Amino acid sequence: MDNVLFEYLLRSGDNCLILSQRLSEWCGHGPVLEEDIALTNVALDLLGQARFWLSYAGEVEDAGRDEDKLAFLRDTRDFRNVLLVEQPSGDYAHTTARQFYFDAWHYLALGELSHSSDGRIAAIAEKARKEAAYHLERSVDWIIRLGDGTEESHHRMQCAADALWMYTGELFEMDEIDRAAEERGIGPNLTALRAPWRVQVERTFAEATLQVPAGQWMQRGGKRGVHTEKLGYVLAEMQFLQRAYPGSQW
Amino acid sequence: MSDWPLWEVFIRSQHGLAHKHVGSLHAPDAEMAIKNARDVYTRRNEGVSIWVVRSSDITASSPGDKEPLFDPANSKVYRYPAFYEVPKEIKNI
Asked: Which domain holds residue B47?
């Protein structure tokens, strides 16, 4: 099995899957009907992307695991998503900060992946990039509205931006899998995405009258399967049905 | 958020020539109304163009004026272009 490719696909797929699951928590609880539908659309876009990545991962692994088995029958240690996407939805400011940090990175990463030497990755990324462009437009919009809104919304938005900042470093980290993927032209040098990502953050926060957090220390581990305790709760809810009633379909 | 104004949404479909009223929604401003309209009304590939207009900016005819406004158009058959000989070469009018 091509372990580098398999791991790389799991990372892409798990980022989308776990963030989608987190966003789904808002379904039926959105602040207004229109926003409820809009956020659920984003969740569904990401779920669709997760299916593409995980289906491909299952084929590469060639061990009889399809997208469903990969999504519902792995435990926390086997998930490869970054820590950012498993963080709790919190209030709308936390959901928005998490989404903005991720979308700004995701859009850049997909742009690079659309030139991947692996034709299937390039095709998935090309399709997903259009969706990510809209997600980013939406999250930029909300950062500005909440940041440059009322005193309370500004305060909450700044708190959320600060609280999630330490989970952004991992997005640009290069480990041996990333380096091997880069050498083969499968994926980009993630560290090189940090500068354009930072430009996007600075420009958006300036317009939103928010301070760019100054923290240097960053959490890491998600890409290697070392997660925060939060992921266990996400999986418990997401995987309950398949764990309790194995193989059931609907 | 209950103070968000109401907007009327018009969508031009894939092959449609004119925008058609599809419904309404709440949004704080025009920009957000377009985004919300995209998410609420074009999820199934319905459109290629969206217009939004503040509901309060629409002037509507009064239902009470229905008779004076529309009844006079009844039984005026000469207003239909049905009495002309159409030359064979002309396919559409």
From this structure: 1-58
> Domain A3-244 class?
mainly alpha
pLDDT for the residue numbered B93? 63
Cβ <8 Å between A34 and B43: no
Q: Chain A closest CA to B40's CA: distance in Å?
A: 7
Here the CATH number for the domain that contains residue B24 is 3.10.20.520
Count of domains observed in chain B = 1
How far is the alpha carbon of B50 from chain A, nearest alpha carbon, in Å?
16
- How is chain A split into domains, by residue range? 3-244
**Across the A/B interface, how many CB contacts are shorter than 8 Å?**
29
pLDDT digit string, tens, across residues A69-120? 999 999 999 999 999 999 999 999 999 999 999 999 999 999 999 999 999 9
Nearest CA in chain A to B31: A141
DSSP class of residue B15 equals: S
Element (H, E) at B77: none
Residue B72, in any domain of the structure: no
Q: Each residue of A158-176: pLDDT tens digit?
A: 999 999 999 999 999 999 9
